Amino acid sequence: DLTRIIKNIAQKKLENIRIYNKNAEIKFSNQDSELDRMTNIKDEACYICHHTDPPLSELSLSERTRIFTSPRGYRLLGIISPIYSEPGCSSSACHAHPAGKRVLGALDLVISLDETDKEIAVYKKWLVAFAAFIFLITSAVIIFFVLRFVKQPIKKMIDTTHMIANGEYLNQINVNQVDEMGQLSVAIDTMGKKISEKQAELNRQRNEYQNLFERVPCIITVQDRNYKLIRYNKEFYEKFKP
Questions:
Q1: Where does residue 233 fall: left (phi above 0), alpha (psi -120 to 50 degrees), or beta otherwise?
Q2: Can you tell me which residues the record assigns to a coiled coil (predicted)?
């Protein structure tokens, strides 16, 4: 019994199995209420072939496939396949159709996509969660590298330049990096050492001239254009007590 076979074939994901004859009448179905029911030739399942006259006898799989929504709100996948006449069909005593008739009817399978859509929704949630996790991890790594290898070295170099401006020339930055930040820190350290050496030389010369100015056994004064006394040495002070 073909009807019983169709009912046995129908599984949980198979919503409907129908066999139409050439007159668009449902001859076999897994739902008893549909048996011998005439369908509208303009229904979606029929119209893909019957929108032309004569109807199309061959269509690609994508053209025979349709996706629609059930009355209960979930999606359904329908695939309709023509049932072609074979030589053994027209010559058999149990069939009553002419040999020139190519298409005898159609087989319509309707599969529920409810479980598939639920799985896809779960996968989408997992994908969004995974993408968010990757974004957070990547952001944390980027922030760590910016703080560790950019902000901290720059802060050390700024502090060191302030110390150099205040006369503390020999403070080491200690940026152990081989990139441009490391090269810049070495340049600032070198600059501090050079400034320290120049300052030490200036102090030495100043002390030398100060000693000469104070210790010579003659009077030395510094005056402006109006002969106003600006500086004088020890010898001048002891003699004139200005």
A1: beta
A2: 188-215
Domains of the chain by range and CATH?
2-112 (3.30.450.20), 121-212 (no CATH)
Instruction: State whether the Cα torsion 36-42-43-47 is positive or negative.
Output: positive
* CB neighbours of residue 137 within 10 Å: 10
pTM as predicted:
0.52
- φ/ψ of 134, rounded to 5, equals -60, -40
Which pLDDT score, from 0 to 100, does residue 190 have? 87
Question: At 110, which helix (H) or strand (E)?
Answer: strand 103-112
Residue holding tokens 């330049």?
161
Contact present, 61 and 80 (Cβ < 8 Å): no
**Which range among 90-104, 108-122, 199-213, 225-239 shows the weakest confidence by mean pLDDT?**
90-104
Strands 26-29 and 229-232: unpaired
How high does pLDDT run on average in the chain? 80
pLDDT at position 143, please?
95
Q: Which residue has the tokens 């009807």?
A: 3
User: Which residues have CB under 8 Å from 3's CB, separation 6+?
Assistant: 28, 29, 35
Q: How many helices (H) and strands (E) does the chain have?
A: 7, 7
Contact indicator for 83, 107 with CB cutoff of 8 Å? yes
